[in-house]
Amino acid sequence: MAVRKRLSPEESRSHALAAARALLIEAGPQAVTLKAVAARIGRTHANLLHHFGSASGLQKALAEHLARAVCETIREAVHASRAGLGSAREVVDLAFDAFDREGAGALTSWMLLTGNEDALDPIIGTIHDLVDELAAGEAEAPGCEQRIHRDTLMLVLMALGDALIGSALAKSLGLPRDAARERATALLEASLAAREAA
Questions:
Q1: Residue 74: which residues within 8 A CB-CB, separation 6 or more?
Q2: Which phi-psi region, left, alpha or beta, contains residue 103 (left: φ > 0; alpha: ψ -120 to 50)?
Q3: Which of 44, 95, 116, 179 could form a disulfide linkage to 111, CB 3.0–4.6 angstroms apart?
Q4: If residue 195 lies in a helix (H) or strand (E), which one and from where to where?
Q5: d(CA 114, CA 28)
Q6: In 79-130, which ranges are E strands?
Q7: Tens-place pLDDT, residues 117-142
Q8: How far apart are CA 182 and CA 193, in angstroms?
Q9: Radius of gyration of the chain from Cα atoms?
């Protein structure tokens, strides 16, 4: 008989969130249940209830986990871009991939459809904190903070929309699959050029 390794509460939560993220990417948000996550990590349903309180608590923790990971990656890309080591397209690709390949778009829509809107708070809060941090690193040009906020709104909404219906819509319009990414890149480059000219 195999002996289960005793995990600290932090390790247990971390393993559960990694399993939840894998389930989200593999099978969609409806697959992220306490029972499925417990089975994936060899724990009990009661153990996960202890850590998350409920299925919506697990979703909220997963949203926060995804938001932190995504924002950290985007933060690094923005800093690299500002240092001349990256491009606007890399920032766009990271945002779009977060909502598409990493499952944030599916999780967002699932939470909205199931009435768990408050689980979106960690995503919105983490993005807001990142934007404020990036705006603070900009020159004190008039309107700079508002431009960064508008750019973020545009990028997140385009990435979310693309994750949900981008493939089907691009196909029906006879556009390449990455048309939304190209458009987002052009908009972001134009905004960055306007910022530099100010």
A1: 91, 94, 95, 98, 130
A2: left
A3: 116
A4: helix 179-197
A5: 14
A6: none
A7: 777 777 788 787 877 777 776 655 56
A8: 16
A9: 19
